[in-house]
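== Polypeptide entry ==
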Amino acid sequence: MKKIRWRAKTKLESKQSSTLLQWITAFIHVSSRLPHTDMIAHPVRPLMIMIIITIRINPPIPSILAWLQRKMDHAAEAHRTDLMTITRFVLNEQSKHPGSRGDFTILLSHILLGCKFVCSAVNKAGLAKLIGLAGETNVQGEEQKKLDVLSNQVFIKALVSSGRTCILVSEEDEEATFVKPPLQGKYCVVFDPLDGSSNIDCGVSIGTIFGIYMIRDGHEPELNDVLQPGKNMIAAGYCMYGSSCTFVLSTGSGVNGFTLDPSLGEFILTHPDIKIPKKGKIYSVNEGNTKNWDGPTAKYVENCKFPSDGSSPKSLRYIGSMVADVHRTLLYGGIFMYPGDKKIPNGKLRVLYEVFPMSFLIEQAGGQAFTGKQRALDLVPKNIHDRSPLFLGSYDDIEAVKALYADPDTKEM
């Protein structure tokens, strides 16, 4: 690397004077647009000063100015004050509906509070001795973790205290919770308070899943208000607790992602208008169940690994936490599968608070969700803890699965 020698001149040649003048003008222009901070403390200004001093030859001004502009934009981004918080986002959406009374906004604020509480508990689970079993089993026959129990209590209390709910269905409770007046509202919330809890002890990403129905005004709440097809949901989302706390929400007009800023205690819009790629390079499934799969599922996975058209095989990615697996699928494309098999024909995933919310989000992002027989959101559950097979992801990938299930030869494999 050629060393730049420092030298001082009592006089500058005309060309060098012109160049220096251009640099000084550029410096003043760029510096004036940066946030008003101390010149020495700001990381961009000293860099520009060094460039001005050390350049001895006529530089390519346009390209250097473009580089400085990018640096300036980056610095300005770090000092943004117009952050789109989730509260501001929801209020903006609310303003588009003149008749809105803000009930949904209040309900969502209580869901967010529950998510922040659980996020804090997950982050300090080891220190607070929240790791391990609680010594109980839930309605699914699964051993409950301490965080399972805590998360369920947090969300039940947050949702009831909102004064906007009438029926709550949790994975952890055998029966639905009916909210009595005066705290009774018009929304039914179905939720899995802590999905992927079997991964808590090893620090894998876990999350909360929820879906929201609304009952008619003046209608007395009854269980059938939640035993509806998923297409009748008015909103769905999940909160993922991992390297960051991410909240993904759809109210029926697209999907948006927010990240919790710990210093502000607010979720900030970081992934606006999420669209799932039309086709992906990843498939996500528990291949430990291969021997029990039906023909179409086995054939699809075989095609993923050994494409007949000579294209590159898909990559397998499987975490075992639905929130984490679906989040990756939503952003990168591909397919997430939990099919039925010979041992569990109806699959493992619960319809109301796992299949429906995730299918709602995927469809809103431009993908598809399929049960092996029909569109997932067209299912009509008969029980609050019903289960269903599920294939969801990129539009083209689900089309390939549908084609295999429609092929009589494949179904008989």
